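Worked example 2:
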Amino acid sequence: MFRKYICHTAFVLSGLLLSACRDKLELRPETAIDSHDAVNGETNLTLATSGNYSLLNNFNYITAYYHLVESPADNTEATGIFNPGGTRDFEAYSYNHSPALSNPASVYTNAYKLLRGVNNVIVNVPDNAAAALMQLKGENLFMRALAHYTLVSLFGRPYIQQNGNNPGIVIADKPTPPLYRPEKRNTVKEVYDLMIADLLAARTLMTTARSETAYATRDAANAMLSALYLNMGAYAKSIQYANEVINSGKYELTRGTAFQQYFAGDHSAGEKETIFCLRQLDGTGSGFYYYNQSYTVEKFAAVSPPLLALLKEGKNDLRLGFYKVLTTTSGNTYTFTTKFIQNPAANPTAKVSSPPLFRLAGLYLDRAEANAKLGNHQAALDDINLIRQRAGLSGDDLYSLTNLHGRADVLSVVLDERRIELAFEFGHRREDLLRNNLPMIRTYGKQGIPGSNLTVQTNDKRVVYFLPQNETNGVTNDLQQNP
């Protein structure tokens, strides 16, 4: 089936120097390769792939995405109205959306820019290519799935609604000529089908061992498959791919002091919990991810009281170390996350953090949720207790079938633990709420700040964002807008 996709994102491929690509993953492309020239042999395909990793790690793409998926959930509390220059949309927190918002448009444009780049590599690696080229093809297939995921999670309804048969986004699975205009959006199900097909192909092609987790691998593809199948309600398959990573013997939960320092620096190499991360380097000044700015400069997005209460429920939970108490300019005291890269301007001696998109703890939690929904309650609690023990909890702070600590059921135990462990990481909390048809409830917040004391149901129109207005204006494109 011929699928059409965005034309106005026809950008040139960006690439890194070949030596930089293999020695370390840089943050920005240092050279530009024309899309017609970037397909002649392994050297150019390698350069183009490095450029695609840089497009994935673009401040205007993945950073904006973090803001759009973390701010609408119930892990954050706005300490004030924050929207300087329209560059960071407070409307994500307040649910006061419009097609003119800058961050959704930024994610949309840059995701399709990445898709153009990865497609130009994918189509130019023949099926009988050498293993090194097939590895590159697999890595680009993984990035293609990831780019589609960021788009469909923002602009398409949750998969569980209408079994994926709501409008999603325009699939981009092949290069297109410049100025090509898409005619319609694919369904959420069609997007999921493509992502799964890409990941299944990628996992068979990526056979090269990687020492740095900032590159895609078979395990990264398996981790994403586990997450997608969980969203779809295919619980046995979610467990299958989680198990493949867990049982591979290549990963282990970081413990003790190493766990306490997990988010304090670049962990793209030399530790065993990370499966795939966005590598940041000291001195680059990029990758602020908004929430780090909040606790170092603007102090905008504080930790919500319900999340803080969960963190304090156990005795001496090590995960409290990923947060700090600060006083804002108004004189009020709040708790802020420290999971993200520091702002070099405010903290010139601080180390950066490389945000993990997939890590081993998340696979245990995927498996726990799937088992809870399949009725395998003890297996689910075993995984939950493993995560809690790693966090320094023991005895009465662990769960049993006869003591769920006041929770209604095992699934509630699992979702609370996912909330604690994965807070502020790649929008997990928002996905958990949407996937489980649970409302976003804010029974907190300062009066007068939009979004405070707010409840949003999963069928609310604004749990997804409007398409950028130039995609529906009848001039640039004429796609169906979200209601």
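The chain has a mean pLDDT of 87. The beta strands are 13-15, 31-33, 76-78, 274-277, 301-303, 323-327, 333-337, 356-359, 440-442, 454-456.
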